[in-house]
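Researcher: Good morning. I'm working through a list of sequences from a screen, and I'd like to move beyond sequence-only analysis. For each chain I'm collecting a predicted structure so we can compare shapes side by side. This is the next one on the list. No need for commentary yet; just the structure.
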Amino acid sequence: MEDNDMRDVIQRHAQMLLRRTGVTGLAQGNAREHGGADAPCLVLFVTEDADTEDLPDQLEGNPVYLVRMAPFLPH
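Model: Good morning. Structure tokens for this chain:
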């Protein structure tokens, strides 16, 4: 899948996903970095305490990998 196609998928789904409590971002990645094959994927960033039970494992046929992150604290 080309970069532009992945950006389109992100645009179509980001608003809905970012409304969910604990979801902080959605980006394009490579599944190899998450233990998968060398292929494009989507990366969903969530907080450490996010409920991930109902989050998608794929969007429009593209695998979705979750990355848990500590919340950002203001300085």
